[in-house]
């Protein structure tokens, strides 16, 4: 079953063919969320968990960056001093002048800036679990299991780190489950992409065919904020959601060297290519994706196998296009950042990941991002 899970994806923005109809026959009634008593203490994926983690921040600075459509605060946590990049132009104008240093002078002495964007899809809480544990590492050197992460601790001393624990608190609030470990993918899909008025599931990718998601809605999926906006597919030249504006504003202000948008599906973990980034950036993302996958293999965590790699085609040769300009594309073109999407397993029946594995998958991702950007920085001067 596990090997087939790639074809059963219902989550994000994956490049696969039509979702399988066979799963419709597997529809199972969700378990009672109140009976989720096996969730370990370190697995902190709720809005309450974020609030508690933010209240413990002493070494960083917590800022409210937006109010969601549903009236909830969006937060960012900043570690390390913000350097003066002597900005005199926005990014695309600087590129037009043939040198991104007009946007941000980042010489060899500048600290790398690393930007972690928590889940913009509310059911994909695995990224919250990872980032809440990352905050614990920033403050104590250890994750919530008590495991030390010396390299990640070092990151907070040698990089500027920006953490947005969740990009979509509205969606997270609407999910009745604190985890999907051991539950069928169908349950995640029901609350993730939501249902129509007749109770049928919207599913991926049809859940993107109506946007904003308003009208034929039974359960509004956690994909969306309370106004029905999927932040991954906002209108980036005129954003509809305050959450999107805040996420984009941080990128423009911080000029991050590397940025991840955290997602999940019923799958082995992997990086998704930034389909509308320039070729040189696609090659960097592919190199990073393989480095990360190799590390998962070495640690015997769920992975994509030895020969896996990303597409580095310069552009989409097909019509209709298979790949959209989405949040990570916008982040790159607004700031030059090496922005990509990451997909974690949920731990569903279909993907089989455990609580321990999901946390390790997240923290190893963050560590490899730090390793990669420390070794492979782009110098702008
Ligand atoms: Zn997603």
TrEMBL record:
Assigned keywords, A-Z: Signal
The keyword Signal belongs to this UniProt entry's keyword annotation: yes
Source organism superkingdom: Bacteria
Signal peptide per UniProt: 1-24
This protein's name: Peptidase M14 carboxypeptidase A domain-containing protein
């Amino acid at each position: 079953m596990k090997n087939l899970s790639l074809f059963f994806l219902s989550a994000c923005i994956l490049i696969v063919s039509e979702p399988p109809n066979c799963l419709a026959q597997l529809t199972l009634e969700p378990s009672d969320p109140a009976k989720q008593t096996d969730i370990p203490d370190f697995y902190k994926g709720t809005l309450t968990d974020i609030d508690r983690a933010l209240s413990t921040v002493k070494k960083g600075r917590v800022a409210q960056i937006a109010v969601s459509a549903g009236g909830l605060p969006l937060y960012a946590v900043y570690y390390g001093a913000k350097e003066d990049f002597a900005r005199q132009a926005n990014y695309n104008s600087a590129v037009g002048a043939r040198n991104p240093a007009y946007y941000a002078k980042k010489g060899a002495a500048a600290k790398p800036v690393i930007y972690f964007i928590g889940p913009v899809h509310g059911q994909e809480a695995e990224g919250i679990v990872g980032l809440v544990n990352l905050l614990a590492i920033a403050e104590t050197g250890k994750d919530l299991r008590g495991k030390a992460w010396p390299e990640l601790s070092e990151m907070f001393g040698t990089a500027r780190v920006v953490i947005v624990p969740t990009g979509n608190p509205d969606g997270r609030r609407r999910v009745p489950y604190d985890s999907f470990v051991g539950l069928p993918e169908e349950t995640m899909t029901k609350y993730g992409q939501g249902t129509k008025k007749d109770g049928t599931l919207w599913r991926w990718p049809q859940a993107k065919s109506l946007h904003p998601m308003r009208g034929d809605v039974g359960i509004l999926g956690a994909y969306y904020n309370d106004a029905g906006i999927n932040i991954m597919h906002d209108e980036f030249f005129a954003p509809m959601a305050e959450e999107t504006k805040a996420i984009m504003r941080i990128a423009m202000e911080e000029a991050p060297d590397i940025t991840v948008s955290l997602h999940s599906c019923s799958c082995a973990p992997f990086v998704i290519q930034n389909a509308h980034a320039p070729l040189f950036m696609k090659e960097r993302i592919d190199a990073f994706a393989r480095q990360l996958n190799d590390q998962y293999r070495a640690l015997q965590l769920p992975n994509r196998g030895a020969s896996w790699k990303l597409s580095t085609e310069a552009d989409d040769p097909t019509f209709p296009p298979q790949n959209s300009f989405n949040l990570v594309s916008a982040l790159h073109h607004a700031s030059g950042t090496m922005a990509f999407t990451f997909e974690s397993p949920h731990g569903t029946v279909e993907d089989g990941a455990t609580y321990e594995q999901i946390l390790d998958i997240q923290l190893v991702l963050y560590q490899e991002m730090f390793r990669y950007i420390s070794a492979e920085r782009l110098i702008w001067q």
